[in-house]
Amino acid sequence: MKSISKYICLVMLAVACVSCKKFLDVTPDNVGTIDYAFRNRNEAENYLFTCYATLQQLRYPQNDAGFTNSGEIIYPNNLSDNQGIDPTGFNLIRGTQTAQNVGLNYWDGNNGGQAIFKALRRCNTMLENIDKPTDLSLAEKKRWIAEVKFLKAYYHFYLFRMYGPVIITDVNLPINSSQQTVDQKRSPVDSVVNYMVRLLDEAKGDLPVVIQNQAQELGRITQPIALAVKAQILATAASPLFNGNPDYASVKNKDGQALFSSTYDPAKWDKAAAACLDAITVCEANGFKLSTFVPPANIPANLTDSLKKVLTLETAITAKWEQNPELIWAQTPTFPTQSFCAPRLTAAAAATPIFQGTFAPPIAEQELFYTKNGLPINEDKTWDYTNRYDSRTGDDANRFYIKNGYTTVKAHFDREPRFYADLGFDGGIWYGNGNLNPEGAYFVQGRGTAAYAGPKDNIKLNITGYWPKKLVNYLTVYDATYTIEEYHLPLIRLAGLYLLYAETLNEQGKPYTQVVPYLDRVRSRAGIPGVVEAWTNYSKNPAKFSTKEGLREIIHQETRIELAFEFQPGWDLRRWKELQAVLSKPMQGWNIYEPDAVNYYRPRALITPVFNVRNYLWPIFSDDLIINNNLVQNLNW
């Protein structure tokens, strides 16, 4: 991983420096040519890594719409460059997104967005010139071609999830092309999907099933990655946003060509289910499995089962890639913003607040997680939903989840292990941070300005009282200094594939007996009862899992919980056409400036999101419609 990242950084630096070989830019004078870039195997490999370069830039959470507009995170309105990130990605939920000022503009490559079409041109250049290096072996050439075809498919998929119908960039146009040729129109949804799938089908046979030389090549594309992305593409195409969505019936090219099919096609779910099964079969045959925590030598022998379960769930995300059997594909380089997710846990950290922990999940995200019985909190007949905002003091029985003797809110008790693994909260145990003693673990003190994790001013604060603990490695230490234990944030985990397969089976109309086993694999690892057991014994609606509609709700909530904060739930909510419901209510947090529990635990509205039907797809920048007369805008922008 470090090797491929190093090469990409070196090549991109060479492109940027005037005194270096600017072989990517063939238009200006006094630079190398494409022939030079492909004169031998080594130069061609450098160019291959530039095809990966845009992929590496997609790792920043503030620049991913699946993260910033998912309802999982609130970022303070008044913070910008002083936090070291561009907050433009949060514009949509604040109602400031316009076609004249597009946040996360991946069409053109500005305002936090990458220039995806430029990345596609680099990929096409690679394919056009791959025959030039005479010292490149046939086997390696086939693999490189397959990698670039995958990248082309994935870059199109990134645009597709944001914009829907896009311009298919299959070949680079000659420099002397006419304006009529250059002004291309958007292709219909089905054409874009078929194109992406064709590329992946062409690529998969020439990709390695596993990376043999992990020290040099971990991070390059494999067959399981290609199969899993194919499953994601086909599931997206089968979902309500793109499969017979009446909202888009009027969206057409200027020649009258419809860009969306207005007819629902159930066969699309069949294709998605088959793709999921293919991906799962290949993964399992090659050793992929759900991960569990194996305590290293420095972990005390008295580590409790409850903390082992929390660490199993945490390390499914933060374990080193080569040590995580569940990890199919992850971001490269490492996840860059642990500091935005961690509270101050010690007096030294509070005295010198280097980082602020400003990624703040709202109360609604906390309430998404199940009870200890594996049920939504409003469906569990044994859980006191009505009085969940009352105060309760931590006791000995819960001391590995909530500080013994500390007053917190009743909603924090009797929740599933993923709740304690994924969220930091006032009174919650935060195992790690340099302190591995189970009986003396740190806990979050969040109430009022005097509390370690409480607000210090209008910048050094978490505005809801919750932190995305899941994104912080338990070995990362934030004290007087900050020592980051790096990891690669998963893009695709086996757990996600199991849930996606369960979804496709249910949408096919398969009986719950065929669907539930894939959900239960994930639930069992999470330490909660299986679906049938949970709903039959504890639910107010015990037969919910037996209907397609009821099981769909269960699958969707299970997916949002399991993949929380991993950049995926926001995209899922879009394709399900459920994001508008999530963002139709004010996003709330606790009254963080209050030191006393009775006043702190009062929900307060922080943002009232602005989201309607048009926000399911991104606007194309208005000027682009003037430059390219064949482009049409997305609905209502």
TrEMBL record:
<feature type="signal peptide">
    <location>
        <begin position="1"/>
        <end position="24"/>
    </location>
</feature>
<dbReference type="InterPro" id="IPR011990">
    <property type="entry name" value="TPR-like_helical_dom_sf"/>
</dbReference>
<keyword id="KW-0472">Membrane</keyword>
<keyword id="KW-0998">Cell outer membrane</keyword>
<keyword id="KW-0732">Signal</keyword>
<dbReference type="Pfam" id="PF07980">
    <property type="entry name" value="SusD_RagB"/>
</dbReference>
<feature type="domain" description="RagB/SusD">
    <location>
        <begin position="363"/>
        <end position="637"/>
    </location>
</feature>
<dbReference type="Pfam" id="PF14322">
    <property type="entry name" value="SusD-like_3"/>
</dbReference>
<dbReference type="InterPro" id="IPR012944">
    <property type="entry name" value="SusD_RagB_dom"/>
</dbReference>
<protein>
    <submittedName>
        <fullName>RagB/SusD family nutrient uptake outer membrane protein</fullName>
    </submittedName>
</protein>
<dbReference type="InterPro" id="IPR033985">
    <property type="entry name" value="SusD-like_N"/>
</dbReference>
<feature type="domain" description="SusD-like N-terminal">
    <location>
        <begin position="22"/>
        <end position="232"/>
    </location>
</feature>
<comment type="similarity">
    <text>Belongs to the SusD family.</text>
</comment>
